[in-house]
């Protein structure tokens, strides 16, 4: 399962990129607004940092405007993906843009029925929102599981992206259910690597090393200072 960051913050993207496991980024209007930056400059910069798809969201809900916005968003960079909400006009715009070779991430998906529509419209990615379903006492993992099962049964090529992730177990469950991608806030991304036994084990290895170092004879040069 590919790991994406759900952010428009350049420092977070750069830091996650350093780890070598970042495969893409999703942005949305709320995330972009938080950065108080120039929209185009910011999205271009994100696209240049990330070696993978960067979803950039449209801001309209009529077919013609969505198509016009989609074309301009796709022109921002080769890895730009157009994010469109799952509405009747959004589906129509997805069909049109897809027929022009533009990649669409169908967002704000909350049911298997909507995910079927997204795939039929030719979306490149479908984004079911886990956290927001959990917030209204709906089993988001059941919905995600249904979508993965239906996509497998139907042979849909649309990639399933688990979105609105709130904690590391969402990521683990999404991977078990067969999601292709999980997008998450930087805080959740960081929490994936954290384990108290790793920290404790590392400290112990290092203190043993430092104590015994003078008696270990010749060391590789990069280990002499450690
Ligand atoms: C997905 O692409 C969305 O940007 C995102 O996951 C929404 O998450 P939220 O519910 O935390 O706002």
Name the CATH superfamily classification of the largest domain: Aldolase class I
What is the architecture of the largest domain at the second tier of CATH?
Alpha-Beta Barrel
What is the highest CATH level, the class of the largest domain? Alpha Beta
Find the count of extended strands (DSSP E, 2+ residues). Answer: 8
Q: Tell me the Rg in angstroms.
A: 21 Å
Strand order of the largest sheet: 1-2-3-4-5-6-7-8
Uncertain segments: none
Which features would summarize this protein structure in a list?
226 residues, alpha/beta, TIM Barrel, 2 domains, eight-stranded parallel barrel, 8 strands, 53% helix, elongated, binds erythose-4-phosphate
Describe the structure.
This protein is α/β, with parallel strands linked by helices. The protein folds into 2 domains: 2-194, Aldolase class I (TIM Barrel, Alpha-Beta Barrel); 195-226. It contains 12 helices and 8 strands. The chain has helices at residues 10-18, 29-34, 39-49, 63-74, 88-99, 112-120, 130-135, 140-154, 168-177, 186-193, 196-212, 221-224; strands at residues 2-6, 22-26, 54-57, 80-85, 104-109, 125-128, 159-162, 181-184. Strands 1-2-3-4-5-6-7-8 form an 8-stranded parallel beta barrel, surrounded by 8 helices. The radius of gyration is 21 Å and the shape is elongated. The mean pLDDT is 97. The structure holds erythose-4-phosphate. Erythose-4-phosphate binds next to helix 7.
């Amino acid at each position: 399962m590919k790991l994406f960051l759900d952010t428009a913050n350049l420092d977070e993207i750069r830091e996650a990129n350093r780890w070598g496991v970042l495969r893409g980024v999703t942005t949305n209007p709320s995330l972009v607004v938080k950065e108080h930056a120039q929209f185009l400059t910011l999205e271009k910069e994100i696209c240049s940092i990330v070696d993978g798809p960067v979803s950039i969201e449209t801001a309209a809900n009529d077919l013609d405007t969505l198509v016009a916005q989609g074309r301009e968003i796709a022109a921002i960079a080769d890895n730009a993906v157009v994010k469109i909400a799952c509405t009747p006009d959004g589906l129509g715009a997805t069909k049109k843009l897809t027929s022009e070779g533009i990649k669409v991430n169908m967002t704000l998906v909350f049911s298997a029925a909507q995910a079927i529509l997204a795939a039929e419209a030719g979306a490149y990615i479908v984004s079911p929102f886990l956290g927001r379903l959990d917030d209204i006492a709906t089993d988001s993992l059941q919905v995600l599981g249904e979508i993965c099962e239906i996509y497998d049964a139907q042979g849909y090529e649309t990639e399933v992206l688990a979105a609105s992730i709130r904690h590391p177990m969402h990521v683990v469950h999404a991977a078990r259910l067969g999601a292709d991608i999980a997008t998450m806030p930087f805080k959740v991304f960081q929490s994936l690597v954290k384990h108290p036994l790793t920290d404790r084990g590392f400290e112990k290895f290092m203190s043993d090393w430092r104590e015994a170092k003078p008696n270990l004879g010749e060391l590789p040069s990069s280990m002499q200072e450690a």
